[in-house]
Amino acid sequence: MRSSLNLRRAEDDDAEALVELWESVMRKADREDLVADAREVIADCADSTECCIVVAEVDGVVAGSVYLRATTVTPVNLEPVVQAVHPHVAPPFQGRGVGKALIEAAVTYAEDRGIGQVASAAMAGSRDANRFLARLALGPMATLRLAPAAAVRAKLAANGRGIRAPSRQLSQVLAVRRSMRRSGGTQDGPGLGVTRSGRLEPTRR
What we know:
Layout: E1 5-9, H1 15-22, H2 31-46, E2 51-58, E3 61-72, E4 80-89, H3 98-112, E5 118-120, H4 127-135, H5 149-159, H6 167-182, E6 191-194, E7 200-203
Parallel strand pairs: 4-5
Antiparallel strand pairs: 1-2, 2-3, 3-4, 6-7
């Protein structure tokens, strides 16, 4: 007997099942907190016209899901795109057309909004997932890299050359400008200049 595949929007009761599917890409937290996170994401999409969580059911059992979001390619590239975020199929249901149905849902979501681009991503080490997306014409566009801020700061300090980063001085100058504006002062506050030592300091105009 052929299995029945059904796609629908996620509901609050799906939170536990979504954690089962997405736990590897969620934050490190207790199970209870992850379920609360999933409920919050479901609620946010329920109140928005720009996102949707699609759940795939096989014979009434949650088999996969994908988060769809209508946005732009990047904050700078304003070409509209639908992002298919974390398309995931539970292992017992892989190879049964569930993943293809989830990506088809992304295409339909884009077409319904007159959006001509669809984007998705897979974990860098997931060879099967990347091959699956490639077979559906989704080519590589960028590599997303992630690290703790402290680790990046340490590397910057170890490899630093040239002008020293002026982040703290810039923050101080911007704070002064905001304070002046709130107090009704002129908006033509001090300018910014780089000293010979590489520090960013206010300058008189």
